[in-house]
Amino acid sequence: MGQVGRTSGCSPSDSPGLSNRRDGSDPPDLPGPPGPPGVSRRSFLAAAVLLPAALGQPPRSEARRIGSVPLGAPGAASPPFGRLLGDGLDARLFTDLSTLAAPPSAQRHPTSPLTSTDTFFVRTAAPANLRDAATWTLRLGGLVKTAVDVPLRDLETHGGGPLRVLLECSGNADPLNYGLLSAADWQGIPLAAVLDRVQPSAAQTRVLISGVDDDSRQWRTSIAGASWIFSRDDLSRAILALRMNGAPLPRDHGAPARLIVPGWYGCTCIKWVDAIDLVADDAPATSQMREFAARTHQPPGATAAREFIPATIDTAAMPIRVDKWIVNGRPEYRITGIVWGGTTPTSALSIRFRSGGAWTRVDDCPLPESTLTWSLWTHTWRPTELGRYQIVLRVDDPTIRTRRLDVFFYVREVQIDEV
Question: DSSP readout, 294-326?
Answer without folding.
Answer: TTTTPPTT--BGGGPPP-BPPPEEEEEEEEEEE
